[in-house]
Amino acid sequence: MDPFFKVPPSPGFPLFPVSPERVNRQHLPQSPSLPSGLSTSLQDPFSISPTKASSDVQGKVAQFNNLSKEAIQRRKDNEAALRRAVVGREEAESETKRLKEENKLLKKEIEEGRSRERRVGERVESVMVRHFGYLYILNSDSLT
């Protein structure tokens, strides 16, 4: 088995561990035997040049500002949507209240109509009984 290719004992460990010295290392003194450009690239292959670092920082700041603007706009949009929803709910509640009142009035009118119809029917029935009852009595007298 290759000694350079070890599988970590459990998940959660880095594949290629880095020493704390290497992580915290800023810059090594340049070797006099190497040319200046070559010595920096050999010293720390993960180092970032100052101009690239400042442009990265500026890029991150611009990205953060952009996210901030997007969050503010999203918040404004959400607040406007919430206001529209509240107004819509209030309108629906007032419409529901109006319809309930109208329904109550219509039920009252229907009940009054049924009451009038019942009274008229009773009146017609009493008139018919009187009229036909009188005719029945007259007819029965004439038959005898």
What is the compact description of this entry?
By secondary structure, this protein is mainly α.
Identify the notable features of this structure and list them briefly.
mainly alpha; 74% helix
Give the low-pLDDT segments.
37-43
- Whole-number mean pLDDT: 77
Q: Provide the gyration radius in Å.
A: 49 Å
Task: Work out the helicity level.
Answer: over 70%
Shape: rod-shaped
Largest beta sheet, briefly?
Answer: none
> What structural class do the secondary elements suggest?
mainly alpha
State the total count of DSSP E strands.
0
Task: Bin the strand percentage.
Answer: under 5%
Order of helices and strands: HHH
**Annotation field: number of helices:** 3
End-to-end gap: 137 Å
Task: Set out the fold topology.
Elements: H1 20-24, H2 36-43, H3 50-143
Description:
By secondary structure, the protein is an all-alpha fold. It contains 3 helices and no strands.
